[in-house]
Amino acid sequence: MNIFRIEHIFFLFVAIFFVNCNPKTNKKAERRLTDQSIEKNQKIDYSNYKDLIEGIWAENDSVNATFWLKNDSVYNVEHQDEPVHYYLLNDTLNIVYSESFTVKWVIVRLDKDSLYMTNDVIEDTAKLYRR
């Protein structure tokens, strides 16, 4: 039986905390804005997501870093020596904490400076900015 290490649980709560600290947004409206920017019948090219998502991400200008993504790992600032595996599947960032526990974040916006993502558990949109 896999038992979560306290650090991994802490990392999950930190991730949930920074999402809940952001102002409320309308998920449907943001998704609609994203959908409107894509012409009908145009396929989205996710091949550059891996290059765009790697880097250091923070909640706002006053925070140096919240976490960073490098190769196939997520590094929490508080637990740098204990990276967690992640992988991208189309527009979804999958963070694997154990064999039986994966958190899925749908990427709403990703460019060279910003990363907006949502998940089914939290109603807010996590808005992160590259450092």
UniProtKB/TrEMBL annotation:
It comes from the Bacteria. This is Lipocalin-like domain-containing protein.
